[in-house]
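Morning!

This is the sequence you dropped in the shared folder:
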Amino acid sequence: MAEKNSSEIDKIKSTNRILVVTLIIAAFFLGSLTNKVSTMEKGASPSAAPSAQTQPAAPAAITNDDIKAWAKDLGLDSNKFGNCMDSDKFKSAIEEDAKAGQGAQVSGTPSFFVNGVLLVGAQPYDAFKTAIDQELNGATPPTTARTTVESGRLPPLGSKDAKVTIVEFADFECPFCRSYFTETFPQIKKDYIDKGLVVYYYRHFPLDFHPLAKPFASASECANEHNKFWEMHDKIFQEQG
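The structure's back. Tokens below.
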């Protein structure tokens, strides 16, 4: 009889231990759920919120005042540049470039015409090297399509006597244009433009869904009044980085 009572007591103790463990686990999950709900009510993610130091800051929106400050950095006449920007003086000139691009079948940016041969996109340096070297060596296949493209009004880089002309249609806010500017253009400039083998022209092709494309284009045109188009061209791309 005593053995039976002892067995029953052991079962009760075992059951109690299971109940205690179950209650502890339930309390843990209840506390976790309460914490998640509290966090959600504060507008944060249900998961543990990272510290402010680990969260990248959102890029500040670029304004016309920022662009005017860039002009000052470049040593331009602040009043003249500001008046040029505010009056949208070069709106029609920018639109003419875009129309010329459309007439040449440009549908995206950046697009390049290497002696009239179309090359589309932020291509790697080797793609440009192949196209340029073929033109320099007279090795471009005779069946290659060519488009007659005017060079536009903006000042060129390189010698006008160069054998190869490149006309770029681009959008200053286009990330692919900036990628080309940072990764490919410097090598083209070093190997071909600076050596007098290529003359390089820039024309505007601002895309409607880029709100800063036209203000940037305007800024480059206004800087050109101070003979600093290419300085502003570089500044615009660099500041977006």
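Headline: The first helix runs from residue 2 to 41.

More detail when I'm at my desk.
O.
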